[in-house]
Write a structure and sequence with these properties.
Blueprint (H helix, E strand, L loop, with lengths): L1 H5 L7 H19 L1 H4 L1 H28 L7 H21 L6 H15 L7 H40 L11
């Protein structure tokens, strides 16, 4: 498993890619839900999720190699993920989730903080902002997890299906 997710060398077929993609999608889904637990858990989960970007790069690179292509296409996959999340699924799914009154209040607190000319100097002054950020992130955790999961699954399994295995040995194995 370590070699599958952490080593960009070599090539893997569609089945091994699908296995790695399922593992990473499940792991990322759980990590994205970290924001629902608390602000601290969400921040820690986000840092761990950054490591999985490298795992995705290794997985896609080896799948590209299997198709006889260089692995440099991964940045385009990140761009496609951003477009799917930001411009397709987030707007589509936003109507399915209601916004809580607490989230609206939290947004107002953050807006007031952002537009204020005075900088907080004590923990008591910044505490409401931290609490508001936690409420806002919690309100978006489930929706974001679903959007990221759907976008990632479409890209991973769509590209996996599109790439044809090169049956001949190539420079990657």
């Amino acid at each position: 498993m370590f070699k599958l997710l952490f080593n960009p060398e070599g090539r893997i077929g569609p089945d091994a890619f699908a296995k790695g993609a399922v593992i990473l999608l499940a792991l990322n889904f759980v990590l994205w839900l970290g924001w629902y637990v608390s602000l601290g858990v969400g921040i820690l989960a986000s840092l761990i999720a950054l490591i999985t970007v490298y795992c995705w790069a290794c997985l896609f690179t080896k799948r590209f190699h299997d198709a006889g292509l260089p692995g440099w296409g991964f940045p385009l996959i990140l761009l496609a993920f951003y477009v799917l999340v930001s411009f397709v699924f987030a707007p589509l799914l936003s109507g399915l989730f209601s916004v809580s009154p607490e989230a609206v209040e939290a947004y107002i607190v953050l807006e007031e903080f952002q537009n204020s000319d005075e900088q907080p100097t004590t923990m008591e002054e910044i505490q409401p902002v931290i609490e508001a950020l936690g409420i806002l992130m919690k309100s978006m955790a489930i929706r974001s997890s679903i959007v990221f999961f759907i976008s990632g699954a479409i890209l991973a399994f769509g590209i996996n299906k599109f790439l044809k295995t090169d049956p001949e040995p190539n420079r990657w194995g």
